Amino acid sequence: MPKLRRLSGHDVVAILKTFGFVVVAQRGSHMKLKRRGSEGDQVLTIPAHTSLDLGTLRAIFRQAGRFIPEDRLRPHFYSA
C-alpha cells in the first residue's frame, strides 16, 4: 500500500502549478489557487505550512481529485 508523502504547503502548490493552477491570493497562512476549467473556475485553498498534517494532505488530494484525474495526481502525493 503506498504511503502518503510528507509535504509542505509550498510543495503542494508547486505540484498543483504543474496542472495549471496559479496562486491568486494569500491571506495569512492560506493560499488560494485557481484555474479555469471546462465547468468554470476551479479553486483550492492550501495552507502555507512547513509540514501539512496527513489528514489535511488527504483532504487536499480528494479536493484536487475533483479537477485532476487521480491517476495523474497520485504519484505526486503517494510514494511507490
From TrEMBL:
Keywords: Endonuclease, Hydrolase, Nuclease, RNA-binding, Stress response, Toxin-antitoxin system. Coiled coil: none annotated. The keyword Signal does not apply. GO terms for molecular function: endonuclease activity; hydrolase activity; mRNA binding. Gene3D superfamilies: Hypothetical protein. The keyword rRNA processing does not apply. Belongs to the HicA mRNA interferase family. InterPro entries: HicA_mRNA_interferase (IPR012933), HicA_sf (IPR038570). Signal peptide: none annotated. This is YcfA family protein.
